[in-house]
Amino acid sequence: TLLHKFAKKLAAIGGPQAPGAGSKASLAATELKFSFSKSQYELLSAYSDGLVSVLIFEGLQKITDVSPPNELPDLASLENRYDVLCLAARNQILLKLVDNSAFAYDMDNEGKLVRLVANFKGGGLIKINAEPEIKELSSHSGLALGPHTEAPYWCAVNAKDGHSPAPSSLILSALWNPSLEPTRVIPLPPILEKIGVTNCLALTTNNFHFTRSDSFVSGKGEDGRNVSILEFDDKTGFAARFNSYRFSVNDNVSTFVKTAYTALCQGVDEATAIECTLTQESAMVINNIRALHCRNVIKDNRRVLVRIFGLSKFSTPIVVSEDPLVLRG
């Protein structure tokens, strides 16, 4: 297919991290759009405009027939595999279809655009060879991850106080998912409608704290204080940032704010998640400012997902490097 052809070309130059990959992905997306039906094009435009919580691509071409080894090789050798670069390149092109540019933060994931989501650091149902005593609460562990948007959490759409906003999107595909373990997505609009106007207004106050993410580069990034969970935005309507295992409410706030936080947490707990079991033949783009995502504990340590962050046309970040696109976290 045309998408597969473009992905292979991008992989051949080194994937999304390579100089010039962003502009090549953009050209590929432009050409691909000509082959879409009106309804497909409208759906992509709706996502681009911030109106869709999650978009799932299915019927994609399989990249490789190679079975996963019983034990994963180290991260560096996995990252440089041709099939991983192909999946990452395809993800970058799919992000461009919804007007999102692939990027990395300078203080997260060692500044790399492509992150492999797999149990490298323990915490899964089955222990890995070098199972550590203390498990890292990140996508490099096998631990269950509760509902969250992706960090950083200082701001959602526009840069503030020297911090770039949170990712607009994240895209995931799977190199291997032999036990068909799903990724879950919880759209926020139904929850916000359910908890009501007073609670939503209370969530726009700067009364919430968050703890530092384990995926940040050593010595960079810190805990955050006095941020909001919701904000009104002229271009996206509303924008959210929330993490069920990192956020907390300030002790010295009114009952209204505490009630709102409890109502949000309860609404998230009771929500019905959209389940997507990723394979090489599918990809999922999650709108990171209007949907949460989560997963259960990893049961099969051979599972490897390929993730990239996307920056929408609405975001105003602080750019460290243009090619590849790296933002100040």
Architecture overview:
The protein has 329 residues and is of the alpha+beta class. Helices cover 26% and strands 23% of the residues. It is built from eight helices and 17 strands. Strands 1, 2, 3, 5, 13, 15, 16 and 17 form an eight-stranded mixed beta sheet that branches. The radius of gyration is 19 Å and the shape is globular. The mean pLDDT is 94.
What percent of residues are in strands? 15-25%
Roughly what percent helix?
A: 25-40%
Shape: globular
H/E series, N to C? HHHEHHEEEEEHHEEEEEHEEEEEE
* Low-confidence parts: none
The end-to-end span amounts to 37 Å
Q: Determine Rg (CA atoms, Å).
A: 19 Å
Summarize the structure in short.
This protein is α+β, with helices and mostly antiparallel strands.
SSE topology sketch:
Blueprint (H helix, E strand, L loop, with lengths): L1 H11 L8 H13 L4 H11 L5 E5 L16 H5 L2 H16 L3 E5 L8 E4 L27 E4 L20 E8 L6 E5 L1 H7 L1 H6 L5 E3 L13 E4 L2 E4 L3 E4 L6 E3 L5 H16 L3 E3 L5 E6 L3 E5 L8 E8 L7 E3 L4 E2 L2
Parallel strand pairs: 2-17
Antiparallel strand pairs: 1-13, 2-15, 3-15, 4-14, 5-13, 5-15, 6-12, 6-14, 7-8, 7-11, 9-10, 16-17
Helix pairs in contact: 1-2, 1-5, 2-5, 6-8
